[in-house]
Design goal:
Length: 286
Amino acid sequence: MHALPVPTHPLLRPFSAMQAVLLLAALTALAVQPPAALPLWVAAWLTAAWALWALLRGRIGMLLALVVQCGALATVTSATGLLQWHWLFKPLTMVIAIILVAIGAYESEARALFDSKSWWLLGAALMGSLAGDAFLMVEGFFIPGLVSFLLAHVAYIVLFRQGVAWLPRPGALAATLGVGGAMYAYLWHGGLPAELRIPVAVYVTVIALMAAQALGRASVLGNRAARQVALGACFFMLSDSLLATNRFVQPLPLAQVWVLATYYAAQAFIVHGMVVGLRRPQNTSV
């Protein structure tokens, strides 16, 4: 991720010390995990350790480190059947991301760098994602979850439009619509229920437009933060493709791992890239 100036937040030292203690304690917990689940827990531990390393190197802030770590825990608890913990960590991940954006907006306003529309759009996209996460955890709420993520993608499209033209790279649009169209055809022939064909078609179109706008924005701006946002948008398309394949076509091995890992990678890249871009050359403490 984009390198930031070495953080100097007063809470960094105690936060990092507490993280190190928790990671060491988690090593002992790995010894009692069932063999089948051990690789997943090891992957989650390595992700959490990477987040701490990135924090100490100044690559990410404290709250983004928590987003990454909560996302890893949401993923592993879902895959290993610890649903009570999954119900905690899945919404908590987006709550922390929303707090990160709120603090970033407040600090930018204090530094006379406040771009209110962009911050509000980023917050709205995360709120829609939080609602989608909550709905998709409850059986029978697929359509409300789909609508929530649809609104989140609309907010992302408008956000990625700030400072650049609409869909500035026709090639990116053709590519994302092509991928989306191929995925939709695969779902249609794989058994997509008739009542979901129109909602899913609308959703596929909107997420393809979101990814195209992000890719075009990255091409125009040409900076690392914008490229991270574009990468996050592509991860979002991948995550939704995996989810739809698993739900409507055929079960995928370790589906929850791949769906959630790519989803949290998408959100982390988008949030980090946008916050870095909105703060411009200013330092970050979160």
